[in-house]
Amino acid sequence: MSQPPRLMHPCREGLSQEVEELVQAVRRLPEPQRRLIEPFLTRVVDSNRRRRQILSLVQDALGQLRLDMKYLAFDLEATRRERDDFRRKLEEAT
After folding, report:
1. pLDDT less than 70: residues of the chain
2. Which residues touch 25 (CB under 8 Å, ≥6 apart)?
């Protein structure tokens, strides 16, 4: 028994334009050729999807890192101001 193709709606799966075009081209092939190529195409589509997910995770992580760096810079500056204020008060007391 043959399995139904897993590539039902490539546009909705977030694939690149080139991969979508490849899927459409393979769908137009005659059944014997399509059956030979579909396993490879499925691997390409899965790999493309995984790469996009990884890229999205990396972009999210970088965004969070940038935000964390801004908070740390703000905290460092506030700590320096507090230190300078305490030094000034200590010098005034002596």
Report:
1. 1-13
2. none
